[in-house]
Amino acid sequence: MFGFGSKKITSVETYQKGDFISARKIAFAEVKKNPQNINSLLVIGNSFYIEGNYEKADEYYQKILRLDSENFEALVNHGEVLLRQKKYAEAEKFSQVLKDSVAGVFLKAKIDFEEEKYKEAQDGLLEVVKQNKSDFWAWNLLSQAAQKNGDVALALESAWQAIKQSGGEDSQHLNMAYALYEIASEIGAEKVLPYLKKWHEEYTENSIVKQSWNAFFPSETFIKSDINYVQKVFDNFADSFDETLDGLDYKVPQIIAEEIKKYSIDFLPKNPRVLDAGCGTGLCSKYLDSALKKYQLYGVDISTQMLEKAAQRGLYKKLEKDDMESYLIKQRNKFDLIIAADVLTYFGALENVFCACFKSLAERGIMVFSISKNEKDSISWQQHFSGRFVHGEKYVQKVLKQSGFQEAIFKPCVLRKEGEKDVLGWVVTAFKK
Ligand SMILES: C[S@@+](CC[C@H](N)C(=O)[O-])C[C@H]1O[C@@H](n2cnc3c(N)ncnc32)[C@H](O)[C@@H]1O
Fold this sequence. Notes:
seven-stranded mixed β-sheet; globular; Rossmann fold; binds S-adenosylmethionine; 19 helices; alpha/beta
């Protein structure tokens, strides 16, 4: 007998290819054979960490540390888990163990940042980037810490370094977009223009850069957020979306459900077909039971990661990945109710999207959506430095009418917080009749 034999693929190789689920399966088998296989234990821990299952991840880091109390990767990852679990006091105590390493200084700086000790965080991060210039996540956090400390020059330069050191990763472009928006809102657009121009010159084709550029230099042809941009933003945001929105006191899904409840008896059939347009992680689906006894819920969104979270709720009959405008055009007279919570803020001109909604509503159908208020009602819509769009009430009324809606009720409300400020807008119920 002879043969070439087949080389077994290890969990580490599989993990390095980015297939974390398969890597974990292989690692479990490896650990069954050899319970002291540290590399396999690390793969299991890290794959749980990536899923956000920090308790489970830590179980494996602890196993490694029982086998080898000085295992550097397990020590660092254990510290990261404490940080993610917001166990700051424990994490701080633990960071002492690592204090002589750059990873230890970085961990301490992250704890300081979370505890709002921005000066200490900035000092620690300056040390990290001095020792490891290519660590773009350190530059990223340094830009945020510097911004909190009012050091605009350092904030912008660090955001720029994060982009350069990452080789132009989208996560770092998003950080720059956010820094430009925050600094411009606080101290005026002129201060950020040199960086905005440099950024735009070097990364002209990136959709995040284009979106920010248009927010500062509006163009009449830029009437809707680029789909690639929306996708990038929300694919990056999906993991922390629900927690972040909770922290912003986001109330739109509840208000929409209250509005639906008011009109459901008169306008909706017993088992309405409902479309959650731009459904995101499915926050609206949580409240529909309070408004409707029975319903069939469909969802559309452009972000794969957001859709995955929505699917985990198990409340949607069907979820599809598409630009909602293109999707609606294909669904004539299909829905009894369309909801769109905090979605039209990614649209400037509303003519096309309202028209598509109208056509995909069945007779007597209703549409309930939120809209962010443009303080200057004389202006139909405007792009904010944040990249999002705000709208004037008169314009929204006009376009609803033009699209065929017979009546619309505007309920003024606080949509959410942004820093200390209330974001004002309306939840609008529009009737096809
Ligand atoms: C701020 S989130 C709101 C999500 C959800 N409606 C909620 O209330 O939690 C906006 C969502 O709209 C989606 N979105 C924005 N523009 C879109 C478009 N043109 N087509 C499909 N989805 C879009 C985004 O991907 C994102 O998931």
